[in-house]
Amino acid sequence: MSPYLHYFQNRQGADRDAKKAGIARLAKADYFRLEPTILALREDGDPIRVLADSMSKLFTEFLEDPAQVLSPDARNDQFDPRRAENFDDEAFRYLPDDALPDRKTGCIIGVIDDAVPFVHQRFTMPGNRSRVASVWLQDARRGKTVAADLPSGAEWRGVDLSRMLGDVANGDLAGEDAIYRLTGAVDMTRSNAPPSGAFETGHGAAVAPLAAGFDPGTEQGKDHPLIAVCLPPLITADSMGVLAPVPILTGIMFIISRACGLCRYIERQGRHRRNSVELPVVINLSMGLTAGPRDGSSPLERFMDAVSDGKVNGLGPIHFVLPAGNHRQGRLRARLHPGQQLGWRLPADDPTINAVEIWGPRYRNSPGADLKVSLAAPGLAPATTIFTAPRQFSILRGPDGADLAWVYYTPTAFPDGTHRDGIVVIATPTCPTRLGDPFGLPGEWQIGIPDDLPQGDYELSAQRDEVIRGFRKAARQSWFHDPDYRAYDMAGRPILTDADNGGSPKVIRADTVNTYATGRWPLRGGAVDAQSARTTAYTSLLSDKQSDPLLNEQPGDCRAPVDASVNHPYRIVCGRNSGGFALSSGTSMAAPQLARWLAGQLSQGRRPGSRAAIRALARPIGSTDPAPIVAFPAEFREF
């Protein structure tokens, strides 16, 4: 079980008992069965059936919603993973016949995000034809059109969306907002989740048009149908991503399933032989975390690698694009050696937990609880962990017996037979949310690596704990403190690399990459400012221990223009409503541009067989840039 889930299950107050009863069962979803699922997809003649079997296993506990991330009316009580597509039913028809992509030049774009504006004009063509083949609103009120193979929410297909867009044009529906309310994307009557579908400047509203938006007055986007997944708002609200893997994994499986279905639908409508249409797929996931092993071992990373590593029967190649991350300068990453210690600063008045993950070097022998860390709260003597077996945990208590931190031993096994020890430290909130609750100590804690441990690098990461715009207002980020770390030079300019910092700081900028994006296949997008084409100061760096030396400390695999300039650190992006706009920044805006570019390359018949091949494809002739900036043939209209 995830340490974070275990903590919330056992530590939260009595008013959350309903969540405690089943949250552990949700955590026990066997993610590693997903890799055999992909192997079966390559060999089985019916990919929909194989996906249905795996989705059934993954959704078994999700149906009960033990963590209460779904609204009560979102649950699908008639869940049937073996439902068959019925293309004679209009609700199951993916797109109008004159909106279907070319079977040779089409490329499906998938987007997993919060509140994707699926009836935005950027996703339409002349004649009110939608290019959205399918959208799954995971937390919407269960509607009549919900597919039986989905455990919750509602699914809407392109034919239905086109009909509703036509009703808007005819005056029978009062605009796009009426469609969002009719489909369940916006429901202001709910009390357990923020209505992020109503946000004018939501994250998904910026990301999805960058990935798959085209001029609605032309047929340019016809070859790029969109399959979208709108995550539950409570998943987006939690910047620590405690419960995110399950909705994201199921979202990926949904996109694969519907991409297979769309290919079969194109064959049916065009009277082509079965499996003669195999469109490639590019999936954009503009989300990420700051703490984790960063070695590709997480279930989400293993699944993405398994999907991209070989051919899924009935589909073309599947690629994933993720942001490199925005925390190069966040002081959330450190590297220690035995005998060293580091300050960890916890802000006062923080009602959320703060967490640090410590990961040791790889070794050949079986896990034996070899990793130890010392932990000292402000004003207290240090205490050292003593674990004897994997998955154990201990509690650091103050002189009054109150819990100060929960510490977990989390070793990881790799397919090559090696292991890696990990320890997760979760400090209790420094501000109680209820009278009588214990609270942690704000100030500078000390984390140390005992000097009797084997030599090597011991890597520390502070978990992201930020306020997501539109959601909770109370989170406050912790950070590492190292006197040798310098954020700015004498002229006030940010110091961008560890080499420029000088000295031997324990807090590092290298290997600050998004922890969802350290697998072998996903393309990591970095951001540059459009004026100078220089990498932005916030773009996280890849590891300085890459197997490919060209990638050492690079700002992603490829880069895209995001900020207007150094002095204007934002770009204009789409708002939820057609014609609306917002200002946004970050590598989350670079990733969808790379996804869009890659989809264009795949449409032209190019089939890069590795991440290195994609970089080579993006690199201009004569350039040696290890992280090339993708070139677009024309300026993309912003809204």
Summarize the structure.
With 639 residues, the protein is α+β, with helices and mostly antiparallel strands.
Fold topology:
Layout: H1 3-11, H2 17-27, H3 34-43, H4 47-59, E1 108-113, E2 124-125, E3 129-130, E4 132-137, E5 154-157, H5 158-170, H6 176-183, H7 203-212, E6 226-230, H8 233-237, H9 245-270, E7 281-285, H10 299-309, E8 318-323, E9 333-336, E10 341-346, E11 354-363, E12 374-376, E13 383-384, E14 393-397, E15 403-409, E16 412-413, E17 419-427, E18 443-448, E19 458-462, E20 479-481, H11 498-501, E21 523-529, E22 558-563, E23 571-574, E24 581-584, H12 590-603, H13 611-618
Parallel strand pairs: 1-6, 1-7, 4-6, 7-8, 8-21, 21-22
Antiparallel strand pairs: 2-3, 4-5, 9-19, 10-18, 10-20, 11-17, 11-19, 12-13, 12-18, 14-15, 15-17, 16-17, 23-24
Helix pairs in contact: 1-2, 3-4, 3-10, 4-9, 7-12
Organism: Paracoccus sediminis
GO molecular function, one term: serine-type endopeptidase activity
Protein name: Subtilase family protein
Indicate the mean pLDDT. 86
Share in helix: 10-25%
Instruction: Report low-confidence residues grouped into runs of 5 or more.
Output: 13-35
The spatial strand order of the largest sheet comes to 5-4-6-1-7-8-21-22
Total helix count?
Answer: 13
GO molecular function: serine-type endopeptidase activity
InterPro entries: Peptidase_S8/S53_dom_sf
Protein name: Subtilase family protein
